[in-house]
Amino acid sequence: MRLADKVILVTGSCTGIGKAIARRCVQEGARVVLHGLETEWGEAVREELGADKSVLVIADLQDEATPALLVRTALDTFGRLDAVVNNAAWVASSNIHTTTPAFFRQMLEVNTLSAFFLIQEALPHLKERRGAVLNIGSVNAWCGEPDLLAYSVSKGALMTLTRNLGDALFREEGVRVNQINPGWVLTEKEIQRKQEHGMPVNWYELLPPEYAPSRRILDPAEIAAAAIYWLADESGPVSGQVVELEQYPVIGRNPPKK
Question: How many structural domains compose the chain?
Answer without folding.
Answer: 1
